[in-house]
């Protein structure tokens, strides 16, 4: 959680210094949901996220260096600089992406869940099902794709957990004014799966619920819909001046900051001392600093990367008949070379 | 910034109420001298989002059954194009919708079919695809298949499109070509604030469903004198914005400013370029382009969307059909590359001034 917070704060700094650009959406305040859920997963489990995906990537195990480089658009980033802030993918850590479009990731997650169920039941590989977690926000719960996937998952009893990060706001639209029944967890039973509501600012409570839901999926009992009530401390994106939200509401949730609550809990229960926590924080600062340095020093992608990976075979598209990348053809800059 | 625009919007709306004409102005209408003087006095420097804001204010003022809706429109929208509308016209006419593009457009079609003017906003043109089904299968065919009993002419869909410098895959797309392939709807793209206000008012009042793409790059950057009164610009009429004799250039939206720079540079090399703003993509003004090509004998088309299957292909094919013997060089298309819109490589992907300049020279020296 602390890594997530420190990372996002550093992102904001780097953005305002002009090192990264584009639309960056920060996760401050919602760390408990990411940590609570993803830390219970195995490496083979899948995570599908939204555009607010930096911390999901970090929790799943993608190194901070790779995420920071991706944000800077460098070759060493997890997607080689192609995707940027909103599109974190990692084959190694089974992170199936950030999605700029709301709700687009949920059907993808459903497909991944079907694969793990098929692998176990038909191909008889492995002894328990790999679980897929689909993260999305409150605004997405009014979108058709969400409902279609709840139906599919319940129908086919897929090992998937739908995690709603209800932070009450979709850019400037309050969830309460956009939804006929604002209690999202109730939509689960309508499709035949359990719906659970949990306080998303408390990482231990989230972990309890996550354990139950993930356990259910792993045993093959089907999907669960978990609504986590959480809050984002910053604006929707770094370009959002965040004038619309009531300061009283912000203060209310700032008081329930997940990191501060967990710190208090740890110190009260004497699980660790203040000094030990400070050591952890210092280590994390070093990790984030190192990530920034690494990203700074990494090279920008070469121009040839622009034409790679449009189709499966780069030769038919990116590489011309003379064996060189088409973008190295001098006619390319004229716009008269055909690709 | 937002509050500053809100204040500005209110001040402008007061002056509009005092001085506006009563009926919608058409190009051929005779304007009284007194009003003309007033109009000349009351043009203000506005950027694109303020011009669109003014147009929306006027549209809602003049028709009590017109509505503006979309994601986040009531606080002004993410680009502040809808500032001040909710405060002035109320939540019944200017309201937020949940995040469902298909629902937004379908709902707009229903409103329009009942005789209302529905002005739907899609937050970014990249997000219009869930609504593509409703636009293509319902909006475009409504009048046709009901035998003119019902129509959704009152529907106007506004969406910001195009590159913005840092948009990446999903905040920079130019989907106009997809919609140009659909008979039954109109596609309109303005190039500047003064054009945008007139064209948007025409689109809203046009008896056909229209998709209005606004170049988001120009929202703040383009500043122009925009008349404060209610005026409409004709649809399906292209405009020659720069006269020339050696080569015709055709474009729309933000790309025109880049083409203009290329034309100025080409002038220094002695090439006289004629620049045409297409304005309405379908139904497009073939006559104006044809007349120009008959004069110059050469054509170059430029747009941000990928070159294969882009609208430039349609223009090229039609002009070749009509002017084959007059053409002195192949029709050149300087467009985006055939890849998804890139993030870091954006300057390399875009049809830049230099690419256009190179193509002008090679076409003229063919």
From TrEMBL, chain A:
Residues 2-301 form the Dehydrogenase E1 component domain. Pfam families: E1_dh. Its cofactor is thiamine diphosphate. InterPro entries: DH_E1, PDH_E1_Alpha_Subunit, Pyrv_DH_E1_asu_subgrp-y, THDP-binding. It comes from the Eukaryota. Its EC number is 1.2.4.1. It catalyses: N(6)-[(R)-lipoyl]-L-lysyl-[protein] + pyruvate + H(+) = N(6)-[(R)-S(8)-acetyldihydrolipoyl]-L-lysyl-[protein] + CO2. Gene3D superfamilies: 3.40.50.970. Keywords: Oxidoreductase, Pyruvate, Thiamine pyrophosphate. It is an enzyme of class 1 (oxidoreductase). The pyruvate dehydrogenase complex catalyzes the overall conversion of pyruvate to acetyl-CoA and CO(2). It contains multiple copies of three enzymatic components: pyruvate dehydrogenase (E1), dihydrolipoamide acetyltransferase (E2) and lipoamide dehydrogenase (E3). Tetramer of 2 alpha and 2 beta subunits. This is Pyruvate dehydrogenase E1 component subunit alpha.
From TrEMBL, chain B:
InterPro entries: THDP-binding, Transketo_C/PFOR_II, Transketolase-like_Pyr-bd, Transketolase_C. Its cofactor is thiamine diphosphate. It catalyses: N(6)-[(R)-lipoyl]-L-lysyl-[protein] + 3-methyl-2-oxobutanoate + H(+) = N(6)-[(R)-S(8)-2-methylpropanoyldihydrolipoyl]-L-lysyl-[protein] + CO2. Residues 46-221 form the Transketolase-like pyrimidine-binding domain. Keywords: Oxidoreductase. Its EC number is 1.2.4.4. It is an enzyme of class 1 (oxidoreductase). It holds the Pfam family Transket_pyr. Transmembrane segments: none annotated. PANTHER family: 2-OXOISOVALERATE DEHYDROGENASE SUBUNIT BETA, MITOCHONDRIAL, 2-OXOISOVALERATE DEHYDROGENASE SUBUNIT BETA-RELATED. This is 3-methyl-2-oxobutanoate dehydrogenase (2-methylpropanoyl-transferring). It comes from Hevea brasiliensis (Para rubber tree). The lineage of its organism: Eukaryota, Viridiplantae, Streptophyta, Embryophyta, Tracheophyta.
